[in-house]
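Design a sequence for this backbone.
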C-alpha cells in the first residue's frame, strides 16, 4: 500500500524530470502519428527505411527543441523540420509536403483547441501544472492522441488524398501556396493565443474559437476540392475533344475502306487468278499497314487508356509522329488506373521517351515506333516498351543518361538524365535500355506486390 501511495505522490506532484522520462514513449507515438497524417494526406508511398529515418528524426528534433526553445515556439520549428524532412526523406513534392504538413498541424491544433480548456477547467489546474505534473500531462496527451488517431482512421477509410496538385496550372498552385501560408499564420496565432490565454478564456469562448477555426479550414478544403473538380473537368473536356478528332479520323478511314472495298476484293482476285503469290503478298502487306493505322487510332480510346492525362499525351505524341510520317504500332493491354507509380512521374518519363523515339526514328529511312503496354503477371510487373528505328548504330546506351549529353543541336541533354533521377527515387521502377541492328528499345518496368 505504501508503494502505491509513493507512486501516486510521485505522479501527482510537480516533477519535471519524471514528466520528461514518461513522455519518451509518447514522443515516439507523436512522431509516428505526424508521419501517418502526412503520408495519408500526401498519398506518398515511401520505403520502410525512409519511414524509420523520418520518424526517428522527428522524435529527436521534438525532444531537442523542447529543451532549447520555449513553448509554443518550439512547435513551429518542429513543423518546419517535418516539412523539410517530408521533401528530402519521404520524397514528397514541395507543394504536397507543405499542404500535408499544414493540414496535419491544423488537425492537431483543432484537437488541442477543443480539449485543452475543458481539461484544465475540469481538473482545476493551470497550464504550468499541466506541464510539470506527470499524471495530468500523461492523461492530457492520451486525450489528445486518441482523437488524432480517429481522424487518421477516418482519412484512411474515406481515402482522402492529395492526388491532383501536380496537375494544376501555375496560377492555381500559387493560389494554393498563398492559402497554405495564410493557414500556417492562422495556426501560429491560434497556438500562441491558446498557450498564453487559455487559463483566462471561458470554455464558451474556446468553443466558439474552435468553431471559427474549423469553419475557416473547412472552407479552404472545399475551395481545394473545387479546384480539383475544375481541373478534372478541364481534362475530361480536353480528352473528349481529342477523342472527337480521333473519331473523325476513324470515320474517314472506315468510309475510305468501304469505298475501296470492291476495288480491294477485285485486286486480290486478280492476283489469285494469275497465281501471282509474290504480288499478292506485297499487296496484302500494304493493305495490313493501312488497316493498322486505323486499328491504332481505335486503341487510342479514353476507355482503354483509363487516364485522361496520359490519353491526351498519347494522342499528342501520335499526331507528332504522324506528321513526321512515322508508322506507330500500338499494343494496349494495361489498365493505367492500376499503375503502381505516381502518374506525374510516369507521364514525365513516357513523354521524354516518346519524344526521343520520335526524333530518332524521324531521321531514318524506315520510320517505325512500336509502343507496347502490358502486364507481366509472371514477374509481378507492368511493362511499357518503346521501340524505334534509329540511325546512329554506335550509340552508347550508358552515356545517353549523362547530364548534358545530347546528339541533337540546341538541346540541353537533360531528358534521359531526368528519367534516371526519377528511376533512382522509386525502388520499384527500372528502365532497361537495349538495341539491335534495327531497333532501339526502352523498357520501363514497374514492379508490384502480388495479392495473396
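Sequence:
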Amino acid at each position: 500500500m505504501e508503494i502505491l501511495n509513493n507512486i501516486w505522490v510521485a505522479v501527482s506532484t510537480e516533477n519535471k524530470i519524471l514528466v520528461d522520462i514518461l513522455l519518451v514513449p509518447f514522443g515516439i507515438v507523436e512522431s509516428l502519428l505526424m508521419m501517418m497524417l502526412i503520408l495519408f494526406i500526401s498519398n506518398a508511398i515511401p520505403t520502410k527505411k525512409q519511414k524509420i529515418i523520418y520518424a526517428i528524426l522527428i522524435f529527436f528534433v521534438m525532444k531537442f527543441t523542447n529543451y532549447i526553445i520555449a513553448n509554443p515556439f518550439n512547435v513551429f520549428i518542429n513543423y518546419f523540420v517535418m516539412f523539410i524532412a517530408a521533401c528530402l526523406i519521404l520524397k514528397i513534392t514541395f507543394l504536397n509536403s507543405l499542404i500535408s504538413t499544414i493540414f496535419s498541424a491544423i488537425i492537431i491544433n483543432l484537437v488541442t483547441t477543443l480539449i485543452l480548456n475543458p481539461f484544465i477547467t475540469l481538473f482545476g489546474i493551470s497550464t504550468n501544472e499541466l506541464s510539470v505534473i506527470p499524471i495530468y500531462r500523461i492523461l492530457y496527451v492520451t486525450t489528445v492522441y486518441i482523437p488524432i488517431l480517429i481522424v487518421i482512421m477516418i482519412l484512411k477509410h474515406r481515402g482522402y488524398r492529395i492526388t491532383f496538385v501536380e496537375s494544376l496550372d501555375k496560377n492555381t498552385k500559387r493560389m494554393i501556396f498563398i492559402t497554405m501560408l495564410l493557414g500556417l499564420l492562422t495556426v501560429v496565432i491560434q497556438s500562441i493565443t491558446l498557450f498564453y490565454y487559455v487559463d483566462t478564456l471561458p470554455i464558451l469562448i474556446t468553443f466558439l474559437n474552435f468553431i471559427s477555426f474549423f469553419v475557416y479550414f473547412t472552407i479552404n478544403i472545399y475551395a481545394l476540392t473545387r479546384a480539383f473538380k475544375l481541373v478534372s473537368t478541364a481534362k475530361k473536356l480536353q480528352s473528349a475533344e481529342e477523342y472527337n478528332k480521333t473519331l473523325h479520323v476513324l470515320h474517314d478511314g472506315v468510309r475510305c475502306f468501304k469505298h475501296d472495298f470492291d476495288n480491294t476484293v477485285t485486286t486480290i482476285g486478280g492476283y489469285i487468278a494469275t497465281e501471282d503469290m509474290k504480288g499478292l503478298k506485297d499487296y496484302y502487306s500494304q493493305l495490313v499497314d493501312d488497316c493498322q493505322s486505323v486499328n491504332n487510332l481505335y486503341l487510342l480510346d479514353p476507355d482503354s487508356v483509363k487516364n485522361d492525362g496520359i490519353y491526351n499525351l498519347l494522342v499528342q505524341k501520335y499526331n507528332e509522329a504522324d506528321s513526321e510520317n512515322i508508322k506507330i504500332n500500338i499494343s494496349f493491354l494495361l489498365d493505367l488506373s492500376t499503375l503502381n507509380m505516381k502518374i506525374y512521374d510516369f507521364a514525365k518519363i513516357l513523354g521524354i521517351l516518346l519524344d526521343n523515339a520520335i526524333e530518332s526514328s524521324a531521321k531514318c529511312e524506315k520510320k517505325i515506333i512500336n509502343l507496347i503496354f502490358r502486364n507481366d503477371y509472371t514477374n509481378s510487373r507492368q511493362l511499357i516498351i518503346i521501340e524505334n528505328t534509329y540511325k546512329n548504330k554506335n550509340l552508347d546506351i550508358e552515356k545517353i543518361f549523362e547530364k548534358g549529353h545530347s546528339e541533337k543541336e540546341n538541346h540541353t541533354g537533360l531528358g534521359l538524365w531526368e528519367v534516371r533521377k526519377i528511376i533512382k527515387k522509386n525502388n520499384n521502377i527500372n528502365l532497361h535500355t537495349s538495341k539491335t541492328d534495327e531497333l532501339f528499345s526502352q523498357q520501363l518496368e514497374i514492379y508490384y506486390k502480388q495479392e495473396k
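The chain is about 70% helix and 10% strand.
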